[in-house]
Automatic annotation (TrEMBL):
<dbReference type="Pfam" id="PF03466">
    <property type="entry name" value="LysR_substrate"/>
</dbReference>
<dbReference type="InterPro" id="IPR036390">
    <property type="entry name" value="WH_DNA-bd_sf"/>
</dbReference>
<dbReference type="Pfam" id="PF00126">
    <property type="entry name" value="HTH_1"/>
</dbReference>
<feature type="domain" description="HTH lysR-type">
    <location>
        <begin position="1"/>
        <end position="58"/>
    </location>
</feature>
<keyword id="KW-0805">Transcription regulation</keyword>
<dbReference type="InterPro" id="IPR000847">
    <property type="entry name" value="LysR_HTH_N"/>
</dbReference>
<keyword id="KW-0238">DNA-binding</keyword>
<keyword id="KW-0804">Transcription</keyword>
<dbReference type="InterPro" id="IPR005119">
    <property type="entry name" value="LysR_subst-bd"/>
</dbReference>
<protein>
    <recommendedName>
        <fullName>HTH lysR-type domain-containing protein</fullName>
    </recommendedName>
</protein>
<comment type="similarity">
    <text>Belongs to the LysR transcriptional regulatory family.</text>
</comment>
<dbReference type="GO" id="GO:0003700">
    <property type="term" value="F:DNA-binding transcription factor activity"/>
</dbReference>
<dbReference type="GO" id="GO:0000976">
    <property type="term" value="F:transcription cis-regulatory region binding"/>
</dbReference>
<dbReference type="InterPro" id="IPR036388">
    <property type="entry name" value="WH-like_DNA-bd_sf"/>
</dbReference>
């Protein structure tokens, strides 16, 4: 059995016949026919029924086709991995970061990466909720910094390490009517108030509400920066990562709701990679820098 025979099998099915397969693989039609016949003889199984106008897979052939696709995919993965190792240092590092993650940790690591590997290109995406892990699953990123790890069990071949949690603080504008009573406000007091909420538009939407009040009037936005600006303007209240609002809390532009009804909400964060995707030395250095930078660090 050879990879060429398996490619011929898949091509006949994908292109609807021996002639179309021969054109797709740039081989003669007789070469495709011989490859399939030799495969059938070697496996002692009839793969195609040839009575009709187009070759049709037998029941055994359908199963063998699935196996053939798996073998070809694994062979390509092995070839890609060998080529990757032959090249040594990655030409590009692709990172996707959850917006709730403190980007300063990422920038500190990237500064070291730039100095050590100046020829490596960088692609950096910032996304929300489950989108970073979905981008990693789609092999559009090498490393994902993820908020919440509920999808890890649903995605095979994923390695991850837990980082420090991110703390979401409920805040109102210092110029809002709620500011003077911020330390005493209850859920009942905030009933009917406008709550600014970041919408989850990922494929696998997180059903948890992260402190969203059922009695609130939600305004949905697509990122925390917009959410923060709306809250600062006095148009509503909401929970924002502590590291995004340190200056505003210190200046009084934002006031934390600090009654027992409005405690901070912690979201776990992780660094993650796909085990089925090549992982080079630049990615390894970035991974180690992020993990080390988070050792003993907490937002409190």
């Amino acid at each position: 059995m050879t990879l060429e025979q398996l490619r011929a099998l898949c091509s006949v099915v994908d292109h609807g016949g021996f002639r179309a397969a021969s054109e797709a693989l740039h081989k003669s039609q007789s070469a495709i026919s011989i490859a399939i016949r030799n495969l059938e003889e070697e496996l002692r199984v009839e793969i195609f029924e040839r009575d009709g106008y187009r070759p049709t897979l037998t029941d055994h052939g359908k199963v063998l086709l699935q196996k053939a696709r798996t073998v070809l995919s694994q062979a390509k993965g092995l070839s890609d991995l060998a080529q990757h190792y032959a090249q040594g240092i990655e030409a590009e590092l692709r990172i996707v970061v959850s917006e709730v993650f403190d980007i300063q940790h990422v920038l500190d690591a990237l500064r070291i990466i730039r100095d050590q590997y100046p020829a490596t290109r960088l692609t950096l995406f910032v996304e929300n909720f489950n989108a970073p892990l979905e981008i990693l699953e789609d092999k559009e990123a090498d490393i994902a910094l993820v908020a919440g790890g509920e999808l890890f069990d649903k995605i095979e071949m994923t390695r991850y390490e837990k980082l420090c949690p991110v703390c979401l603080i409920p805040v109102v504008s210092g110029c809002s009517v709620q500011a003077k009573d911020a330390s005493e406000l209850t859920v009942e007091d905030m009933s009917g108030a406008t709550q600014i909420v970041v919408a989850d538009r990922s494929r696998n939407r997180d059903e948890r509400r992260y402190g969203v009040l059922e009695t609130s009037v939600p305004w949905r936005v697509n990122d925390f920066l917009t959410k923060k600006q709306i809250i600062l303007s006095g148009l509503g209240w909401g929970r924002v990562p502590r590291h995004m609002i340190g200056d505003e809390l210190a200046s009084g532009d934002l006031i934390a709701l600090s009654s027992p009804d409005f405690g901070p909400v912690e979201i776990e964060t992780y660094i993650s990679r796909s085990l089925s995707h090549p992982f080079g030395p630049v990615a390894e250095v970035f991974w180690d820098l992020i993990v080390k930078d988070n050792d003993g660090v907490s937002e409190g």
